[in-house]
Design goal:
Blueprint: H1 8-20, H2 23-30, H3 34-48, E1 53-56, E2 59-62, H4 64-88, E3 96-100, H5 102-109, H6 113-119, E4 125-129, E5 143-148, E6 156-169, H7 177-181, E7 192-196, H8 202-209, E8 218-223, H9 226-234, E9 240-243, H10 244-253, E10 263-274, H11 281-294
Parallel strand pairs: 3-4, 3-5, 7-8
Antiparallel strand pairs: 1-2, 5-10, 6-9, 6-10
Helix pairs in contact: 1-2, 1-3, 1-4, 2-3
């Protein structure tokens, strides 16, 4: 073994274990196995000829030698972490590249862009629409605004914004609007329902949460995207189903009505970034999104 420096992989495993007080926690942070961390620590102990840790209750404590090496390792790694984070930090004058589904972009994000500019004038967005599930590496995006369910990709930092709620909506222009609006939810079992291929589980999920049999639903015209589905509903072509937040503006304007209300799905509105993203604009954007969704 070189007398100049200890093996760096072993030192990194030791530093994480010393800082976190647990081999398991160090393994999780380094994305390796428990055994791999233990072997690296043992390598250092064998080279030094003395233990670096002792068992104390359910955890680990540093020996005198371990404390001395731990202080030196922390002094080396912390400046490196800070320098690396600073180097990775984006130019605050550049646009934040935000991905989101096209329907969410058209029906929720774009109508609020003027408000965003007034509330966060230093934040510029470059918006990217995609109907596909985001790549775990986010593939060139700084963040993704989406409605989703756990489990989330392990490399993501998920900022939960608001719980998702869905419900049936129809237009006052619908030929049977007056009859349907005052009827219980069961009446929809006799209606051909507008639906979307991008979320085929929406109607069955709503039916189950309202005590109805999903098998009894009658699906009518289908659409590829939610945006077209809701335009069809607004034109009076049938009853659609949608997240509450995406039709809130239409409900306020009287363009759509939601006679049966909305139910939670267990899903979440979320802003997702990669873990370790140090972009200082993200916390302010998260706060703004939460305020908009609460409103």
């Amino acid at each position: 073994m070189s007398r100049d420096l200890p093996p760096l992989n072993a030192l990194r495993a030791f530093e994480a274990t010393a800082r976190l007080g647990s081999v398991a926690a160090a393994a999780a942070e380094l994305h390796v196995t428990h055994g791999a961390v233990s072997r690296q620590v043992k390598l250092l102990e064998e080279a030094l000829g003395t233990p670096l840790f002792v068992r104390r209750g359910r955890g680990l404590a540093l020996t005198a030698t371990g404390q001395r090496l731990g202080d030196a390792a922390a002094g080396a790694f912390e400046p490196l972490r800070k320098a690396w984070a600073d180097l990775l930090a984006p130019d605050p004058t550049s646009a934040l590249v935000l991905g989101c589904p096209g329907s969410l972009l058209a029906r929720w994000m774009i109508p609020r862009m003027e408000r965003l500019s007034a509330d966060l004038p230093g934040l510029r967005l470059h918006l990217v629409a995609s109907e596909a599930s985001p790549d775990p590496g986010l593939n060139g995006l700084d963040a993704v605004l989406m409605i989703g369910n756990p489990p989330w990709p392990p490399g993501w930092q998920v900022h939960r914004l608001a719980p998702e709620r869905i419900g049936p909506v129809l237009s006052p222009r619908h030929p049977a609007h007056a009859r349907l609006e005052g009827a219980p939810a069961e009446v929809l079992l006799q209606e051909p329902l507008l639906h979307t291929s991008s979320r085929p589980t929406a109607w069955p999920e709503w039916a189950r949460r309202n005590g109805l049999q999903p098998e009894a639903l009658q699906l009518g015209t289908g659409f590829e995207h939610l945006y077209y589905l809701l335009e069809a509903a607004a034109a009076g072509l049938g009853v659609a189903i949608a997240p509450e937040e995406l039709v809130a503006d239409d409900l306020r304007a009287g363009r759509l009505a939601a006679p049966w209300g909305f139910v939670g799905t267990g899903g979440q509105w979320a802003l997702c970034t990669l873990r370790g993203n140090s972009d200082a604009r993200i916390p302010a954007f998260v706060g703004w999104l939460r305020t908009q969704l609460e409103g």
